[in-house]
Amino acid sequence: MMDAAQREKADKLWSMAQAVIGLPFRTFKHPAFEEAYRFSSQFPSYKLPSEKRLRTTLLDANYETVREETEKKMVWDKITISCDGWTNMNGRPQMNMLHISRHGELAHRHVDGSKETKSAVWIAEHITKDIEERRPPNVLQFVADNASTNILAGKLVRERYPHIIFLGCVAHGLDLLMEDIGKLPWVKEVVNDCKKSIKFIKYHHMTNAIFLYFFSNGATLLKPAATRFATNVIMLDRAWTLSSSLRRTVISDRWISWANDPQRPPQTRTDAREAKETILDERFWDKVHDIVMMMEKIFVLLRQVDSHKDFLDQVFWESWECQDILKNLHKSTELRSNIITPSSCDELFLLFRHRWNGWTNIIHTTAMLLNPTYLFDEERQEFPYHSFIMRDFQEYVTLFAKGVLQYSGDELVQYLHDVDKELDGITCLDGSIWTHIHREKLLSERCRTSPMHCIDQKRERKSSAVLNTFMKSNTQQSILKQRHGTEYGSTSNPRDAWIPDDVLQKNGPEIALSNGDRVRVKTWDWTEPVSVEEVLEDTLQARTMRNALVDGKLPVGSTEPMENIVYYDDLADHDFRMIAKCL
């Protein structure tokens, strides 16, 4: 046992080691440090590992351990692959490969590009490698900044995997938009004047001390960073907030005494006079106010997309609102200067549209359409681009279908089944609801008996087959629930899903069921070419009823009241096989 003197000496040795090495104080509270110390103290003969072993074998072993544990925690069912180029301290170009899922982000690997030309083909090769590693059905999109090589790489990836969408980084696009706006002469002049005045105050000890300790109550001015123009907006906003303190600073006796000191260099006195004139100019502050107000919506949008918040379904709507604000900014009653005119608003509108076209994507409009906020908000239902959004949605579903057809068997079944879960319970503008239209057993059978299994058929026809399956349950579930007390398809028996929709345009044979009913099954004539557009046009209509096996007195597709339709939830296996043959 240690006595008090020995314990005191040991504590001092640890404290000295911590101070000399520069270890953070929290190191001694970290569970990993405590565990290592507790285990090692059981063996008095134990010696610490060498620096070389720590740098090499032990570091590699720990890396693999952490990697394996992280992989176990993550679920790679629907992921985004992202790449980002950077330069290390030695000036060597690197590229990080990130895998992002609903459970978090993983820095999967980094690629040394010092001996390679960072072309679109080179980037696409590494993206493809990661896609194959995670399996293509599990990858939804590829995200990178808006550089031309990345855009071309996205096209190359999409040629091989049609369902994987390239998504330009919205945050990068918004920052480029701010840079474009900052280059406008009437904006650049105000930003430069503000930057020059703030730098003068910040870079001189006396002026900064006068401002901080006598007038600002501890609030500091912010300097812009060289890498992102958005920091100029932050600088302007902080300067506007502290404008009263800045005015009091430059008219104070301390400032005047320091700025007019004959011992100061002439250039310093000139800069002090110019900074004072700028800060006391009311027109300058009116322009700062208007520019901050102009950039506010863009900056808020940038902060939203540059966070860990799920914002994909809001990007298109918020971008459209931002565009509308910029276009009509000259009508605002809060403007204080004359720099925001109809012509300047036209400039802003054109710049925004140029960058918006770079970051917007069909996946944004599709996500917006499936957002309940958009579906139920009256203002958003009057959105003028609704038809445009519907076209994007149709295009995305088409790409999804073409991509899915590259996979077969259980992969296809599981992929459609997962998509089904995502769409479950989402109500559309026409009142219809996407429901579970696939059950694993049903899909397994259908993939073996339907034209989807005939991989040698024309892609257009195969796409129509998948689309018919994918969009099969666009039906007014709310009416069904109101009249029957249950939602169609909610039964545990999935066989009702065999019943084709009225999108299937050919009448099949009459069948005698085991219970004595005689019904006619409607089928699709797969020998005739059917375009994707025909399927989409029909299936997206609001339905007052679902095609079902009905009483022999009612033909399939009848517009009789809903109460007259008979839904068979408990068909015999024999009946089920008979219907399957007709399909």
UniProtKB/TrEMBL annotation:
Q: Ranges for the DUF659 domain?
A: 49-196
Q: List where this protein forms a coiled coil.
A: none
Q: Superkingdom of this entry's organism?
A: Eukaryota
Pfam families in UniProt: DUF659
The record's InterPro entries line, in alphabetical order, gives: DUF659, RNaseH-like_sf
Q: What is this protein called?
A: DUF659 domain-containing protein
Organism per entry: Riccia sorocarpa
